[in-house]
Amino acid sequence: MSAEPAAAGAAPGPRSRAERTAGSRLLILDAAVACLVEDGFAGASTLAVQARAGVSRGRLLHHFPSRAELLVAAAEHLSTTQLDEVRRRAAALMEDGPTGRERVDRAIDLMWATFQEPPFWAAMELWTAARTDPELRAALRGEERRLRASIAAVADGIWGPEIAGAPAYADLCELLFTSMRGVALVYAFQDRPAATDPHLALWKRLAARLLDLDSQG
After folding, report:
1. Contact in structure between 158 and 112 (CB atoms under 8 Å)
2. Which residues in the chain land under pLDDT 50?
3. pTM of this structure
4. For an engineered disulfide with 53, which of 18, 31, 123, 168 has Cβ 3.0 to 4.6 Å away?
């Protein structure tokens, strides 16, 4: 006779050691993200993260032996989560299948919006600190390469195969990425709507010119 199925609504059994380890790691990363975004690099000490996460010193150091490893992992965790969200937003934004200039304009609006969100500011905190922190700088190098590859893959999906296959596409993405990053820094001390930034119109005109969209109309 087969065993009876577990009763509906029964309490789950005790978590495995691996599950507990993964759970405590995620708790620490979420706390580090909150400290980094809300209080900046200076406020994201290991003691502050430990207090926010509610874990022991030994537990934190077991997962992240150094502050640099902890904060880089936190930024990676935040960026990965945000990239998944951007994929969902892009799918909804492009659901009606826009092409040509309309798709380019929407893609640029979405790309620019991501430079106003927590992952960007967390990255800026780390990049600035890395200038005078060799350990942090070394930890960031590998992660930045991985993140750029992930961002490029998401960007390809936003632009779509037709635009992503254009000869000037790679140059356009690099130009937009570096330009938006520089312009976004102004919003660290200026309180104005990013959606009305005059650079938006400039980026859209340049994109249309590089992709030769005007001649296709």
Report:
1. no
2. 1-7
3. 0.82
4. 31
